[in-house]
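## retry 2 of 3
previous attempt timed out at serialization; input unchanged, resubmitting
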Amino acid sequence: MSNYYCLVAGLPDVDFDGGKCNFSIERFREDIYPELSKEDSHCIDTFFYAWDNENMLRVLSEGNDIELSRKGCFSLEELVDIIGSVKEGDSRKNEIPLYMYDFLAYYFENEAREDIIWSDVLSRYYFDYATKSSNGFVAAWFEYNLNMNNILVALLARKYKMNVAECVIGDNEVAESLRTSGARDFGLGNSLDYFDSVVRLSENDDFREREHMLDELRWKWLEDNSVFNYFTVERLFVFLQKLDIIARWSLLDETKGMQKYNELIEGLKSGAVLA
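## retry succeeded, writing output
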């Protein structure tokens, strides 16, 4: 694993409540990404695949004549080629992440079904891939987010008297406890040091305030767990995640946020399949 003394030293400081940063994710993609080793670029790719996921779903639902809002690792032409290749049953090319190939294969086998939330299915494949990253820090970050999301969804499902097991994704110990435990804390209160914090935040009816505090927890995790990563790719990964949080808040519209929240509830109530 390489050290990136000059790259890290040249990064600006970013603060959670410090407003916009004059260094964008797109600039990172153009200026810093090309300087990474092949092994380290794979770690950073995991971050950008989230954008590819959004773009791929848009191509599947809207067709090829779209303009990508954010560029991940693949261009529109490359995504169209990937989708077409899987649809035709071609063998997977090495540059296509396995989870994308598996998702698309599942998609084309079940395309006619109307009871599936495709974004959630793709999230399941993506998190399964990311939590098994060869980079321990990256894997731990995605598992932390998977656990937080699953806890929030499980609490929501329990509140509306829905089947928790059908709403949780992933196959780690936390997901299994959420699916099987009838305890008030799902048996996780003593094993996850952030469980009580997530529960308290889930009870906050102010959407914007709740999301802000959840991102504070994520920000704190990034800082606490990267203390000894000084000039490594992990430090660059943390910087990217922080930029993403800041960018998301600069664009967040409370009305749209509540709409997304209500769509989640309706999706759970309808019994739509997650995978």
